[in-house]
Amino acid sequence: MSILITGGAGFIGVNLAKRFVTENKRVYLLDNLCRGSLKNIYRLSLQGAVEVIQVDLHNYNKSLSAISQIDRNEEITEVWHLAANSDIPAGTNDSEIDLRDTFMTTYNIIRIMRILDIKFFAFASTSAVYGDRGNESLVETLGPLLPISNYGAMKLASEAFISAAVESFLDTALIFRFPNVIGMPGTHGVIYDFIGKLKESRSYLEVLGDGTQQKSYLHVSDLIDAMLHVRDLNYSGVNVFNVGPNDEGITVKGIAEEVVRQLCPDARIVYGNGNKGWVGDVPKFRYNNDKLRATGWSPSMSSEEAVRLAVGELLRTS
Amino acid sequence: MSILITGGAGFIGVNLAKRFVTENKRVYLLDNLCRGSLKNIYRLSLQGAVEVIQVDLHNYNKSLSAISQIDRNEEITEVWHLAANSDIPAGTNDSEIDLRDTFMTTYNIIRIMRILDIKFFAFASTSAVYGDRGNESLVETLGPLLPISNYGAMKLASEAFISAAVESFLDTALIFRFPNVIGMPGTHGVIYDFIGKLKESRSYLEVLGDGTQQKSYLHVSDLIDAMLHVRDLNYSGVNVFNVGPNDEGITVKGIAEEVVRQLCPDARIVYGNGNKGWVGDVPKFRYNNDKLRATGWSPSMSSEEAVRLAVGELLRTS
């Protein structure tokens, strides 16, 4: 019995794999190694403990063949589907990216699971499915779902197809709507960008917007905790959970100040205009995690603490 | 200035086209003529008044070329996108059908509109996006959306992609969530099936389930009224409306009795077991049209009246 993680060589995939390895699970990581990389596997000392299969999940036939081969040797009992485009602006400029990497990867893995009769599916969805609701609290019972990016759209499209699959063959689908997730080995995002910029300029940090953007940040260790907590509740059917911190997030200004504090305390911060980074960016959201907390889980860090830890981790390794 | 209706030779498409023709609009019907047919155009005496372009919208290049050609001669200002798979059980057995005919048609028409800079989009969505909520009233603010058929999933996927398109280039998207729509020239559905069966057996009508399934039915004339009413409100942005009657629907038993009454009053009705016709069928739903009614529109018929009228229409022409 083994576990398959798609996008398994990515930032969240390797952290999840590490936890499964400590549970003595046999873990297979499927990845096209475009954004995910073997370096992530070395960084988390996973080499030898997991098997990496390089295949692009948007290629149905190759993926079916690769996954069937694993399943013949060691029955796959769970699929954790994390493979997706993670560059939201790129997907907004060219919808083909999110169609191929975010939706068709979900579509294909579900079809393959149906053929191989694999019944447990966990999915990395996103707060972006809610769209821009301003100050409204984002709770799972909220509708209609009107994403403003192709990334959010293709994640919602994936949720929809997963839901229908539960009716026809899946026993369990866990849909986790992630906020911004930070930690190591992160490869993109605002903390990463700020550190890169400040390392170059040293004396000042240029922020694109006015710094008032406010979002929920979760450290990857809390995210993995939450997902495994829900897995252990042995739900059947389709289950949707927001995963997030117990607060209303942290502003871009707060993040910029933390990066400056830890890296170049004397640097000035120079702000731009507006509170939207790019088309499809949700400038502010209040994320509600009541449903998850009602199951007995609570995050160990606030958005601010998660940012502080992630900045430190990133500075030590970059 | 002209209007493009995709799936325009289908049941709802020709009814919509007819109304646009009475408004003296120039109307183009795009259709692959698989389920839609030229016969529908003859039946509604639309020949000469509309132009039919036979192209399959899941073929992006051919569709782009065909629609660009129209747009060069007469600017297309509105797209009404009705093209979709309408055979729900077929799509549940083979997800490729709904992917291709329901989702990729939406994906392609949106991409084409972006290239041609067409800013108004109306979409035929469905009550199936809500999934099976039992006795809960289906209102637009309900979430999470957990469809139980691939048909519902690919309609929801379409809504998601449309919503993101409003952020990047569309001025207006009207998303109409249809209930069961009946009338002429209908080609499938429970009324059609019952009439076909009863015409063969004459003395009895066999019903698959126990007859307790209860759904909202809307006559196509009311549906078109509702959509044009909303169009005339000149909304911008993305707008989602349930379109349905002012009641809790009619049971399959009620429909069977109406067909028997009008066709063979002495026939017996023989019921089967269970209240689910097939995987992906929602056995019962209570459809809430408060949002639409608050804009000043109200249906002219109840579910029962719509069924009575549609049975009569179908009997007169079949």
Task: Summarize the topology.
The structure is a homodimer of 318-residue chains.
Chain A: E1 2-6, H1 11-22, E2 26-31, H2 38-43, E3 50-54, H3 60-73, E4 76-81, H4 88-93, H5 95-116, E5 120-126, E6 137-138, H6 150-168, E7 172-178, E8 180-182, H7 190-201, E9 204-207, E10 214-215, E11 217-219, H8 220-231, E12 237-242, E13 250-251, H9 252-263, E14 268-271, E15 286-287, H10 290-293, H11 303-317
Parallel strand pairs in A: 1-2, 1-4, 2-3, 4-5, 5-7, 6-15, 7-12, 8-11, 9-14
Antiparallel strand pairs in A: 10-13
Helix pairs in contact in A: 3-5, 5-6, 7-9, 9-11
Characterize the structure shown:
Two copies of one chain form a homodimer. Chain A has 318 residues and is an alpha/beta fold. Chain A is 42% helix and 20% strand. The first copy, chain A, has eleven helices and 15 strands. A seven-stranded parallel β-sheet of chain A has the order 3-2-1-4-5-7-12, with helices on both faces. Chain A has a two-stranded parallel ribbon with strand order 6-15. In chain A, helix 3 packs parallel to helix 5 (95-116), helix 7 packs across helix 9 and helix 9 packs parallel to helix 11. The mean pLDDT of chain A is 94. Chain A binds chain B through residues 92, 95, 99, 103, 107, 110-111, 129, 131, 140-150, 152-154, 156-157, 159-161, 163-164, 166-168, 175, 238, 240, 279-280, and chain B through 92, 95, 99, 103, 107, 110-111, 129, 131, 140-150, 152-154, 156-157, 159-161, 163-164, 166-168, 175, 238, 240, 279-280.
